[in-house]
Structures are given as C-alpha cells and as structure tokens.
Amino acid sequence: MRRFVFSSLFALCFTNPALAETVKVFAAASLKTALDQVAADFTAQTGNQVVISYAGSNTLAKQILNGAPADIFISANTAWMDELEKAGLLVTGSRKDILKNILVLIAHGKDAPHVAISEDLDLAGLLAGNRLAMAMVDAVPAGQYGKAALISLGLWDSVAASVAQAENVRAALALVARDEAPFGIVYATDAKAEPSVSVVGRFPPESYPAITYPAALLNEARDAADAGFFAALTAPEAAAHFTAEGFTMLTP
What we know:
The chain is of the alpha/beta class. Helices cover 40% and strands 23% of the residues. The protein has a 6-stranded mixed β-sheet. It has a 5-stranded mixed β-sheet with strand order 7-6-8-5-9, sandwiched between helices.
C-alpha cells in the first residue's frame, strides 16, 4: 500500500504544478556538486523547490534526531542512517543504497606528482612538518574512512599529530585548495569538483570500508514533491550527474 501511495504522489507532483511544494533535504557535503544539479533539474521540471542542507553526515543525523525538519536524508555512510532507523524516523521500506565513492590523497596545485599509497609510503616525510587535511576523524564519514585507511596501512601513528581536522569533507578540500595544507584525504568526487587540487594517489580499496551512500524518506515527508524528488535521485537524469562527478550508482 505504501509503495502505491508514493507512486501516486510521484505522478501527482509532475502533473499538477499548482500543488508546488518545498522539499527539505539533508545531504552529505560530498554530494553538493551533483545534487545541486539534480535539484535544479527537478525544480525546472516540476516547479517544486528543493532546499538542501549540506554538512557532515554526523551533524545532519544529530540535527534530525533532535527534531530538525527534513523530508529526505542522504548519508555518506550507513552508520548514521542506522541511527535514524533505530529511532523510528525513516519511512518504512524507503531506505536504499544509491551511490558509492572512493578515497584519494590530494595535493595543492594542478600537476602535483603521483604518490604510490601503500605500507611503504613515508607520509610523514611527504608532509615535511606540514598539515594533512581530513574531515573529523572520529565523527565525519570521510574522516573515519581516511583514518581507517591510514591505520590499515600502518601510517596513522606517524601522521596523527599532523592532521588538520575540518568540519566536513568539503572543508578539508578547501584547506588544500587554499594551500593551507599541502595534502588532504577526501573522496574522489570532491577532488573532481575542485580545480585547485590534484589527485596524487588512490587508497587501496581493501584498506577502508566500502563507501556507501544510503538515502531514505523521513517521517516528515508528506507531500507529493518529497516522494517525487526521492524517486528522481535514481532516475537516469540524476545518474548522469552523479556519474559525471565520479560516483558509482548502486540503484538503477
């Protein structure tokens, strides 16, 4: 029955512009470039507005748990979505994994030399007393993935004191783009969105947990537009935007 209701709402939001609504989305900061384009397309097609709050998944999830109004949540890891599900805040059956990402080492500038990332990398020597930009390593998914990779490779202890922790992955990216830190660990999609940095190495995929982005409708979602935008996240037009930014689609 719930699937029928949301299918009907999705159809309605495309056929009755007079019922235009505002969709409130909380989304991981790493999604900004692609998701802004998806939202713009949706607004152009339906007349419905999409208001997106970007931050670290931990910050957004805590805000939702504390009562912040949101219709859709897209997290950069499964753990924070799990917290909302345990709290009974998701529309039953709506949760789905939609995207994957990978972890990279970036450097300031367009043509920085390549670095082979392995247990043999002298990352501390590479930093030469400077800072390594990362999202908060014990709370923000990008930072957690990065710390896990460094621990797996035996590199964490040598650089832990040099880490400049940022509020989210885009803030870590900005530190490197502004040359406030010579190197940083971000998602590949973030690096692609910033012309002032270079990807100098990719972390071995076995060195960190799979980076999966789950999305779900929240109990606040009651309008046709909410269901419509949620469905649009995995439509071919959205997939084109996400893949152009380097994401891998998980849901057709």
